[in-house]
Amino acid sequence: MLTIETQEENGHTILRLTGEVDASNSVILDEAITKVVADGSSSILVDGAGLEYISSAGLGVFMSYLEDFQEKEIDLKIYSLSERVYEVFKILGLDQLMHIYPNKKTALES
Amino acid sequence: MKHQMKISCQTAALSELRVFLKKTLGELRLSDVDQLQLILAVEEVCANLIIHSHKCNALDYIQLDIKQNPGKLIFEITDEGKAFNMLDYEVPDLNKVKGDKRKGGLGIILVKKIMDEIEFDSTRGTNTCRLIKWFQS
């Protein structure tokens, strides 16, 4: 089960993920990101505090946007991941390719 | 310890698989991080089979057997779909995955990084993938 709440805040779009992302629902994450980009957002903050699990299907969604976002100068930042979920990003080396922060404050300040 | 689960070949079954794995692995003294990684590796193999070998046909099934031997945990995944030997699969470079803007290809990297040994054999239409994790008992 995955729910995504979208919120606008001072020029940033916050995607608040709650639950688990796997091959059965990663399309929801994909559609949510596509929508905020289509709506013109150039700063996307992903609040991962409620993210309990993510498989390669979800990680692949983030990966598939990185190149485009770099070209279009769209910021994508993830924050507040639990240790066990952050470790999954680290196993793949995604912590080197993506902007991941301990909390919202550090994400906004960087 | 010996546990079994029969998994229907639909992605909706993955959450049920995680519940089973969490309960089974909960009997062992694993850290939260280790437990999640083992669940992830097993799910990645099953998701690959469900999607690629069985084309999400809910009437097909995968069998998962978990055994604990001294010093190691063995996850044996058996199916009768199109054989896929991940040992033959060349892991793509992450920057190439990024450059290609593709969503797939990461699951097998995760399995290979998390597990200590991977075995595969295919005999008379039955494929068996064995994922082995060593640990200190």
TrEMBL record, chain A:
PROSITE patterns according to UniProt: STAS
Database matches in Gene3D superfamilies: STAS domain
Species: Algoriphagus winogradskyi
Domain of life, source organism: Bacteria
SUPFAM superfamilies: SpoIIaa-like
InterPro entries hit by this protein: Anti-sigma_ant, STAS_dom, STAS_dom_sf
Location of the STAS domain: 2-110
Protein known as: Anti-sigma factor antagonist
Family: Belongs to the anti-sigma-factor antagonist family.
TrEMBL record, chain B:
Keywords, ordered alphabetically: Kinase, Serine/threonine-protein kinase, Transferase
Pfam families cross-referenced by the UniProt entry: HATPase_c_2
InterPro entries xrefs: Anti-sigma-factor_SerPK, HATPase_C_sf, HATPase_dom
Stretches assigned to the Histidine kinase/HSP90-like ATPase domain: 10-133
Protein origin, superkingdom: Bacteria
Keyword Kinase: yes
One Gene Ontology MF term: kinase activity
PANTHER family: ANTI-SIGMA-F FACTOR RSBW-RELATED
Name recorded for this polypeptide: Serine/threonine-protein kinase RsbW
Organism, as annotated: Algoriphagus winogradskyi
